[in-house]
């Protein structure tokens, strides 16, 4: 496990992305399969490096929030990302995630999202926790429902209308 661990569960841990994580982030952002419900994939690792640098600035401005690399503890293997960010012009916090295909179907999204919610309830008391998901993304909708979030609205997000989930 990394010394920069931010949150951990029995099987997983999160830490902020660093510049040495370019290929890890690109495995998510550059994959048409992973990005199918999110946005158009990036075409080169340089775009992922640019995002890591932007997210590092964000994490220094907003303590306890940011873009986190997710690792499976037992093998210390990168499996995905978790986003915990404020929503502009509100006090709301958005959570999001993306995992490499070989990590799908193992309960990782539910496990880490539940931990993130526990963290936010403890450290960002009274703030709404929001997630956006494309209507067709049944797996992610199921994860959000399992962790206690409910559908409250639709909104334009990224490139299409998205279902808005909120923790009440």
UniProtKB/TrEMBL annotation:
It comes from the Bacteria. Residues 12-168 form the N-acetyltransferase domain. One of its GO terms (molecular function) is acyltransferase activity, transferring groups other than amino-acyl groups. InterPro entries: Acyl_CoA_acyltransferase (IPR016181), GNAT_dom (IPR000182), N-acetyltransferase (IPR051531). This is GCN5-related N-acetyltransferase. It comes from Runella slithyformis (strain ATCC 29530 / DSM 19594 / LMG 11500 / NCIMB 11436 / LSU 4).
